[in-house]
Amino acid sequence: MVDLTSRAQNWALAEQGSIPHLKVILIKWPTREHEAQRLWKILFKFLDKELIPDIEEYEQDLGDSRINVERALIALDGLVDATDHLPLFVGPHGPTPTCNIIVEHTDGLISWMKSVFRHYAPKTDQKDHYRTIIEKFSKILLLISRTRNILEAMDGGSPIQLAMLKSYSMLDLILTMWAAINPETQVFFPPYSIDRRTTSYLLELFEFYIFSDKSRALLFEEMDAWPKSTTDAFATSCIYRLQQLHQGFSDTNVEVKAACPGTFTLLAPTLLILAANKRMRRRFIRCRYLYYCAMCLYLCLHPTSEPVSPKNEDHLRMAQGLVEHLMGNPDIIVLGTRQLIEGRVVTMLAEGLSYPAWELETVYQTMMKLLAQSAFQGVAFKFYQLFEADPLPTPVREGHDAQVKGFKDDFVRTGMIMFTVADQTRDEASLCDNLEHREYMPNQIRTRPQTPSRYCSGCHSVLYCSRTCQKVDWKARHRDECTRARRKWRENAADRIVFRPLTRKMLQTIAVFYVDVLFREGRTAVDTGSYVFAIDFRAVPPGKQYIPFDEFLARPEFSLATSNTPRKSKRKSTREVGRPTKDKKAEEWYAQRVRTLIESSRDTGDRSVFADITTTYGLHEVRTFAKLVRKSEEWDSSYIVGNSVVRRHVYPPSPPLTPMQELQAQLDLAQHLIDRGK
C-alpha cells in the first residue's frame, strides 16, 4: 500500500522512479506553480531520449526496458492532464519557467511519442487504443504549439528553441497521426475510429505547419517520397475528416453544430493547400474532396432564415475560391466541376450576388467560369439535374434587382443550352475522332461498328477506329493538341492556333447540334441546298496586344456563320445576307472561306463532313472549324451567307489558346446561341 499521508515521501519516491507514487501525485494536478514545475521535471525525466529501449530488448524484457516504457506511458498521460492548466504558462511578467521546461525537453518527448505510437502501444483492442493515443498525443503537441506561440508573442524564446518546436520529427509524427495508419499492421483506420474532437486537435496542429512556407515545403518533400499506398491512405484520411464534419451538421447536439463551421474554415483551406501538391491532388479528387468541401460550405449556410450576413461572407468567398482552385488545375476540371455542382456551389454563388459588399461582376464571372465546364456531357447533366430538382434562389440586391435577375436568367438559360447540346450526342458513342474518319475507315468498321476503338497513348483524350485514322489525324492536328507531344512541339505549336482535344470534341458536338437545328426548323433553308456551320479562331497580329472588335469584323475568339448553299445559279455574283459590315475586303474573305470549305469537302462521297482549314486575313491567321451538310448530289459553289455577330471590344487570345481562354470561347459560343434564339 502507498502511504497517502506522507506527501513529501510520495514526491521523493516519484522522483526516484516509483511508479505507484507517481500515480498518486498525478491523481490531481498541483495548483501551485513551484509544484507544477517540479512535476513537469519529473515527467520529462522519464521521457528522456536516452531511455528509449531497443524494440528487441523490450520484447525480451531485458534490463529496465519494460519499466522505462511503463513510466513513459504514465508520463504522457500526465502531460495530457496538464493541457487543462494552460494559465500556468503565462505570469504577470511574461512566460513562466514552465514554458522553458517544455521547450527544452521537446525533442525527447517527440521521440518517445513516435516510439510509443509505432512499437510499444498495447496490443489489445488496438482500434480504440490507437484512437486514444492519437487524441492524447494531439493534445500534447497542441500544448507545445501554444507554448511556442506564447514564446513568440512574449519574445521569450531563442531561435534554437523555436526551431526545435518545428522539427522534422514533430512533422513526421503529425503526419503519421493524421493519416491514422496502424503502425504495426500498416492498415488504414476506419473512419469511426477518430472522433471529431481528435480531428479538431489535429487540424490546429496542421494549421501550425501548413501556413508556413518553410514547413509546407518540408511537408511536400515528405509527401513526394511516400509510396502510393501511404499517399492514398493520407488522402482518404483527409476526406474522412470532411465527411465527419458533414455528418456533424445532422447531429442534434447544438455544440457540435456550432463547432463544425469553425473547424471547417480551417480544414478547407488546409486541403486546398495540400492539393497544390500534384500527387495529392490526384488522390483528393478521386476521394471527392471538392464535393465534401462544397457540401460543408452549403450546410454552414443552410438552412437559415436570415439573409446573407457578414458572418457568412467568408464561406461565400470560400465557395468562390473552390471554383478558382478548380480553374487552376485543368487535369481535374471535368470531374471537379461535377463535384462542385453536386455540392451546391452554384446555389451559394447565386446567393452571393445579393451580398452588398461583393462586387456583382466578380461573383457573376465566377459563376460563368463554372458554367463554361458544362460543355462536357457529364457536367451538363449535373447542371440539368440541379436546375430541375433545386431551382436557383432569386437573390435580391437593393438597387440592382433587375441586373441580378438578368444574370441569373442568363446563367440558367446557358446551362440548359449546354445540356441540350450534350444531350444530342449522349446516345451516339464516338467511334473515331479523326475529322476525315469516313475516308480512311476500314471495311471491317463499316460492317462491324462494334469494333473497339483505340485511345491516343499520350493523352487518352481521343479515339480512333484504326491506326490509319490515327496517323492522318496526328499529322493534321493532334500532334499539336496532344498534351504529351505538345511538350516536344511547343515552339511549333506556339505559331499555330491550337485546341485542346476536349475543346475540339466540344466544337464537333455543337456543330452537329446546330446543323441539326437548321435542318429541323428549316430556317433560311432551300430543300436542294447545303448548310455550313463555321467557328473561326483568330490569332493576334504580330506586335499588337489589343485589337478593337471592328478591326476583326467579328469576335476574335470566334465568329458564328450559318450558310445556306442553293444549287448552282447562273448569277456569278454573291448575295450577302445580314453582313455586319460593308468592308469589301472582309466580304471577299468570307466568300473565299466558304469556297475553301466546300472545295476541301468536294472530293468526299459523304453528304455530312467536318472541315478544318487555316486561312489568312490581313496580318493574322484564322483557323476555321466547320460542319458541312448537303442535300443535293454535289457541293455547290454559290451560296448565301447569314451571320449574326455582336459588336463589342474584347481581348483576343494569343496562340496557343490557354485553357481559360478556350473555356471563355465556349461560354461566348453558348451565349451566342442564346442571342440567336431570342
UniProtKB/TrEMBL annotation:
The protein's name in its UniProt record: MYND-type domain-containing protein
Lineage top rank: taxon: Eukaryota
Pfam family, one: zf-MYND
InterPro entries xref list: Znf_MYND (IPR002893)
Biased composition (Basic and acidic residues): 574-584
UniProt GO molecular function: zinc ion binding
PROSITE patterns assigned: ZF_MYND_2
Keywords noted in UniProt: Metal-binding, Zinc, Zinc-finger
Residues in MYND-type domain copies: 429-482
Region (Disordered): 563-584
